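Exercise 7.
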Amino acid sequence: MNKFSNLFWGFLLFSAVVNGQNQHRPDTIGVSNSYDLDEVIVTGSRVAISRDVMPVPVSIVSRNTLEQSGETNLLPALSRQVPSLFVTTRGMAGYGVSGGAAGGISLRGFSGGAGRVLILIDGHPQYATIFGHPVADAYIASDAQRVEVSRGAASVLYGSNAMGGTINIITRKALADGNRLNVRLMGGSYGTQRYSLTDSYLNGKFSGVVSGNYERTDGHRVNSAYDSWSGYAKLGYDLSNEWKVTGNINIAKANGQNPGTVTQPMLDGTTDVLRGMSGLSIENNYGKTSGAVNFYYNWGNHKINDGHFEGQNPQEYLFHSTDYMGGVNIFQSVGLFKGNTITGGFDLKLYGGNAYKNPETEKFADHIKLHEVAGYLFSHQELGRFLLNAGLRLENHKLYGNEWVPQAGISYKAAPETHLKLSVSKGFRTPNMRELYMYAPANEELLPERSISYDFTVSQRLLENRLSMEMSLYYMEGDNIVQVVQVDGRPQNQNVGEFANKGIEFSMNYRILDNLNVNSNYSYLHMDTPITGAPRNKFYGGVTYSPGRFTLGAGVQAIGHLYLSTGENAQTTNFTLVDARVDYRALEWMKIFVKGDNLLAQKYETMLGFPMPRATFMGGISLDL
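Solution. The predicted structure, written as tokens, is:
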């Protein structure tokens, strides 16, 4: 890490020298709503705060970036734009669930598949509660207004599963008066088709957004077809100047095939996944105090054919699982005096489900019901150039009793556009139903996993804010990790694992001209205990140029030392991918575009035995009506 430390301190020195020339600029700092919308975050504190002063590192992926990706699913765009975040894939579209599934999320070496990275929608937890992991096919790009990725433990606000961080999908809302309809049609390689429709409406106190998506592909391998549809609706009404109510619902259905590895192709490996989410929010804002009461309910229904290999008999029964998660979170923030904000909150989460093959003889989980109750306090305090924050959560689990979760951080405004930030936070994860009750390794005596995250971050703005940079050093350690070990000759889940992950993250955005922008990010990860799907080195660089009616974009992603397997015979891989896109605004209301991925036709895979397609192309039209 010495070479990265030298680079880091060189960056600090450069920041200090440059800012010595800018001392005349206003010295403003704080928890306020006066910052530009793109730089205000809510994920790390529940209330709006400038990302520059938030001690915990948070990445923002904007609506425009999601649209430019041309993806139906959210995860591919996030994987390019967020340092330390990587998502495994196996084809043109679709991730699946069960054995051979893609969509494995890794953040700082924490696996989302193991439930150590928490997906949120508008601050509400989203995962299949039976197995404790996200369902990648359920996260749709057109539903998101923006995405905030908190890198580092975030359990003080969000409880279990936020050991490595959170991915908070903030849903779409109407931003302009009147009715606005967008229709997008796309087609390309391997019979891939993508269609989307989004309609937004804003009139006085009422607002609404409705969208629908359909995607299908034949796949680049035999038995790798995929299709999905999704629907989303969000309605809002301002009850008064201080109160508003918002309700939203989305449903996503995905049907996919698992082709198996190239050395052992699979037959009849199909998945039928249905996920639903709904929420109701009542918000208040009186200036000095603001808050919300949020209700949510999520559910899933999965039908899986585990498939068979040539020469084997087909599965006699499908695997079925259903799960649900419902709850309420209440929080209220108040400014007691100048520069102070205190937030108090209460969370209640109820969840459960069942799983079976033969409903008479093969019940793996039978209507399991669990609950968690938590309360927390979170405080921000300005002291001159310093911003201090501290939080404490007390969580009570039906099985494990109380868990105390602290967090503390400090941000220092070293110069008008330079911030130094330090944070320490605890994360934890309660064992999921599969680990406790299902299959041979089940163990009802498991204890929660725990982690501690240490972050040091410096952020810098230059050239009248046209250039922004951020660099973070982190160290994360944990214990009580659940692993399968042999006990009396049989496998059993046990709390025996430990880990220590450390690394460096860098991101940069430079608006060279009003129509020319470059951005990049890089991350280095060192894991004492490697996991698959977590690269040691990850880089992405992109450029966008908009001359007249054209918008030209290109990007390169380089992945180094990605673990495809671990253990004595661990396998790693390296690859570089190049993509490009051309948009042409033919009319004020019509845009034509074409995009290409893996333009160098690289041979690569992110999952062992699942080669990705070579160069692929998509083209389409976008209509604003």
